């Protein structure tokens, strides 16, 4: 069984970047011969991002859900906050210190992120797929032969400043920002 894996990270609460990221992911996915698993390995939120502050770091994950992510390793939310947002999204939120269990047909794949690994150092260790955290504007693609637990191909795609933003994701972001402002006003804060 062959699985394509697309890995992103380091969004750092920059919602304006996400529509361009989605365009690049969509173009990459259409070039792949197999269905792809979309994973974010962390640093998605930022304490310096106003929208992350207003949403208690939920906003990037809500947008990732709309983008079709399967898993996101979260290193910014408390367990309570993660448990509150999980029922509202289809993507699975995983504490960045934990392993994710991915069922691929009859195969069980364990996935973990290693923030210190260079982008070209995705690897299999003791049956666990260890993924790096690509920098912003960088997408990592792996082809994994699941039955032999071997990475057969890797490539890197850059998200350029001239990449056209996806309008659907841009609209999703406008909605998320509007809801965050409404929630903040309801709580008595300012926007």
Overall 3D geometry? globular
Highest-level CATH class: Alpha Beta
| Count of alpha and pi helical runs | 5
H/E series, N to C? EHEHHEHEEEEEEEH
| Class based on secondary structure composition and strand pairing | alpha/beta
Helical percent range? Answer: 25-40%
Q: What's the end-to-end separation, in Å? A: 49 Å
List the uncertain runs.
none
Biggest sheet statistics? 6 strands, mixed
Number of strands: 10
The percentage of residues in β strands lies in: 25-35%
Average pLDDT, to the nearest integer? 94
List the quaternary state of the chains.
single chain
CATH superfamily: Metallo-dependent phosphatases
Strand order of the largest sheet: 4-3-2-1-9-10
CATH architecture verdict: 4-Layer Sandwich
**How many separate domains make up the residues?**
1
User: Measured on Cα atoms, how large is the radius of gyration?
Assistant: 17 Å
CATH fold field value: Purple Acid Phosphatase, chain A, domain 2
3D structure, described in words:
The protein has 191 residues and is of the alpha/beta class. The protein has one domain (2-186): Metallo-dependent phosphatases (Purple Acid Phosphatase, chain A, domain 2, 4-Layer Sandwich), CATH 3.60.21. It contains 5 helices and 10 strands. The strands form 2 sheets. It has a 6-stranded mixed sheet, covered by helices on one side. Strands 5-6-8-7 form a 4-stranded mixed sheet, with no helix packed on it. α3 (59-67) runs antiparallel to α5 (167-186). The longest helix is centred in the C-terminal third of the chain and has 20 residues, at 167-186. It is globular and about 55 Å long. It starts with a strand and ends in a 5-residue tail after the last helix. The model has no long low-confidence stretch (mean pLDDT 94).
């Amino acid at each position: 069984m062959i699985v394509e894996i697309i890995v992103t990270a380091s969004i750092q609460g920059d919602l304006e970047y996400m529509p361009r990221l989605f365009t690049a992911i969509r173009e990459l996915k259409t070039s792949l011969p197999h269905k792809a698993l979309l994973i974010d390995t962390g640093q998605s939120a930022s304490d310096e991002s106003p929208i992350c502050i207003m949403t208690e770091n939920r906003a990037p994950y809500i947008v990732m859900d709309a983008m079709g992510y399967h898993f996101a390793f979260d290193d910014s939310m408390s367990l309570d906050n993660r448990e509150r947002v999980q029922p509202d999204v289809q993507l699975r939120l995983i504490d960045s210190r934990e392993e994710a269990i991915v069922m691929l047909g009859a195969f069980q794949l364990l996935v973990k992120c290693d923030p210190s690994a260079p982008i070209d150092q995705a690897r299999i260790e003791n049956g666990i797929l260890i993924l790096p955290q690509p920098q912003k504007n960088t997408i990592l693609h792996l082809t994994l032969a699941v039955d032999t637990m071997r990475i057969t191909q890797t490539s890197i795609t850059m998200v350029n400043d001239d990449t056209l933003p996806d309008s659907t994701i841009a609209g999703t972001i406008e909605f998320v920002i509007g809801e965050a402002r409404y929630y903040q006003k309801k709580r008595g804060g300012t926007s």
